[in-house]
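Tokens in:
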């Protein structure tokens, strides 16, 4: 069973803490509905019949929604891409069959086969979302069960792809991180394992094909990219180039997800686009302890996971991983050009693309990405450096959260900061926590000068100048860089959105003396929130607040547009 921290880190959808044991929550995971409750659900679906031996849903194929059992029994079992089967449970009348992916009609992660004649109420994804909103108390119980079932599948690796490769391969680390941050079950087999060797031989895979990915439907991907893997798993929704959304949000960090939740809950049609995973930079935070309402703290990924599910609950479309290439705003509605060749059209565009990790000017740094140099600290990276000596560079809150988390895995954590201390850049609770950790060693007024390598990869971090005790370098294979971030706004160069000299988007008081609360940019119908906005407060709570505030401004824009359309029609 996973530890609390590891469980939170591996799931992007979560219920209530703690997560250390699901065994005590079986009554919440598999509640039995009363006849009266089932009658309340009938208006949301249609009754169907399945003979014994028929599949209601199948791993790797689009799930039709939630089944409410009326008669008969259904066997739930896991079947992976190489044909191995494991029975999970059998459910009868009064139970419902689904997990959280069915809120958006994702691929099924398990098989459901009728063991005898079955009658069931099938509630499709759109009606399932309507049910959860309309039936508050019952909807809450159903939602909790759907989330807990996904958590259980993640712990088992059920219904996900099999990744085969070298644990130190940067490409494998990237795919693991993508699946973990998107809350998708998966399993990993080291390429030296007997089972892996057999599969490598079976598929005639060469070294350049690694990592090898076996999808749940049995198809094989050789050295896939994140979009290729996402397509195989059915994570990407069908994008309709002709559809015009009310709001298109670029970025699924706290600001973007907050916008999606508030806009979708108020009846606007919404799509959220992100190139990697929900959460943005905050999603990489191992534990946030000063966010309002979470006195025991919450991981950034867990917080993002809740917001992600909440946005889907209200009907927001989420497309991950999708890269936005450019914004074209010469005409209205505006158009987002995608790197995959498609486009998204919307009446309002919200720039919530956040920031990208800053890369220090170190010779050969690119060679170590995912092979010794990391820009976030998730369970994937923590496992790689377990009981080893590591070096971390950075003095902000993100660095502080990573230090505290990695200290529970690494033998020693050497922290390099250019300043004399953390006081000007880090929250007090983190400073106090770090000082109490016996295996954390902070080295002020220190910087990395160069990286040394050997036949395996990163071997040593050399300092620009020796420490007071004469130390010139640290022998380590793991370097974590938390050296700040730059705005992710290069995709705005084709539009007239005005940026400051550092690339942040100008809004409000920075644009023609408008109100400081105004989140509008220099282009009508385009707004900026979160870390990409000039003058923003780099805090999760501030980003969420801006996400709520921008929806009110979008309503005003759409109301004016609707009024003008009526006037023209008259």
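Residues out:
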């Amino acid at each position: 069973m996973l530890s609390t921290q590891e469980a939170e880190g591996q799931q992007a959808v979560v219920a209530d803490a703690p997560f250390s044991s699901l065994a005590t929550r079986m009554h919440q995971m598999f509640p039995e509905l009363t006849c009266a409750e089932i009658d309340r659900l009938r208006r949301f679906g249609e009754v169907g019949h399945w003979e014994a031996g028929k599949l209601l849903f199948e791993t790797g194929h689009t799930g039709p929604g939630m089944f409410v059992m009326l008669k008969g029994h259904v066997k739930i079992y896991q079947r992976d891409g190489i044909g191995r089967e494991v029975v999970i449970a059998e459910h009868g009348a009064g139970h419902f069959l689904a997990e959280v992916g069915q809120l958006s009609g994702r691929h099924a992660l398990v098989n459901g086969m009728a063991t005898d004649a079955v009658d069931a109420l099938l509630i499709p994804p759109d009606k399932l979302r309507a049910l959860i909103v309309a039936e508050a108390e019952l909807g809450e119980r159903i939602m909790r069960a759907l989330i807990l079932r996904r958590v259980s599948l993640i712990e088992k690796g059920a219904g996900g792809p099999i990744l085969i490769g070298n644990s130190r391969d940067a490409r494998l680390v990237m795919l693991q991180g993508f699946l973990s941050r998107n809350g998708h079950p998966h399993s990993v087999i080291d390429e030296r394992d007997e089972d892996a060797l057999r599969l490598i031989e079976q598929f005639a895979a060469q070294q350049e094909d690694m990592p090898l990915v076996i999808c749940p439907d049995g198809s094989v991907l050789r050295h896939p990219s994140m979009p290729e893997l996402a397509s195989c798993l059915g994570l990407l929704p069908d994008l309709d180039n002709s559809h015009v959304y009310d709001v298109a949000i670029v970025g699924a960090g706290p600001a973007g997800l907050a916008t999606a939740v508030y806009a979708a809950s108020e009846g606007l049609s919404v799509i959220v686009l992100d190139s990697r995973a929900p959460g943005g930079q905050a999603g990489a935070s191992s534990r946030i302890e000063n966010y309002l309402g979470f006195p025991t703290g919450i991981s950034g990924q867990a917080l993002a996971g809740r917001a992600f599910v909440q946005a889907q609950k209200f009907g927001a479309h989420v497309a991950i991983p999708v890269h936005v290439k450019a914004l074209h705003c010469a005409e209205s509605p505006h158009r987002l050009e995608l790197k995959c060749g498609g486009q998204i059209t919307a009446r309002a565009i919200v720039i919530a693309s956040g920031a990208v990790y800053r890369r220090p000017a170190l010779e050969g740094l690119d060679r170590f990405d995912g092979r010794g140099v990391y820009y976030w600290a998730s369970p994937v990276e923590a496992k790689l450096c377990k009981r080893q000596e590591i070096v971390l560079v950075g003095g902000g809150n993100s660095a502080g959260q990573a230090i505290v988390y990695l200290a529970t895995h690494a033998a020693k954590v050497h922290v390099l900061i250019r300043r004399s201390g953390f006081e000007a850049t880090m929250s007090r609770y983190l400073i106090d926590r770090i000082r109490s950790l016996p295996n954390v060693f902070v080295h002020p007024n220190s910087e990395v000068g160069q990286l040394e390598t050997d036949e395996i990869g990163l071997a040593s971090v050399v300092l620009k100048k020796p420490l007071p005790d004469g130390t010139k370098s640290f022998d380590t294979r793991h370097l974590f860089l938390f050296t700040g971030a730059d705005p992710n706004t290069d995709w705005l160069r084709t539009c007239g959105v005005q940026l400051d000299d550092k690339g942040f988007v100008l809004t409000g008081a920075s644009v023609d003396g408008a109100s400081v609360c105004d989140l509008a940019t220099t282009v009508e119908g385009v707004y900026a929130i979160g870390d990409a906005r000039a003058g923003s407060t780099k805090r999760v709570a501030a980003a969420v607040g801006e996400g709520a505030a921008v929806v009110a401004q979008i309503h005003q824009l759409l109301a004016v547009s609707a009024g003008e359309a009526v006037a023209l029609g008259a």
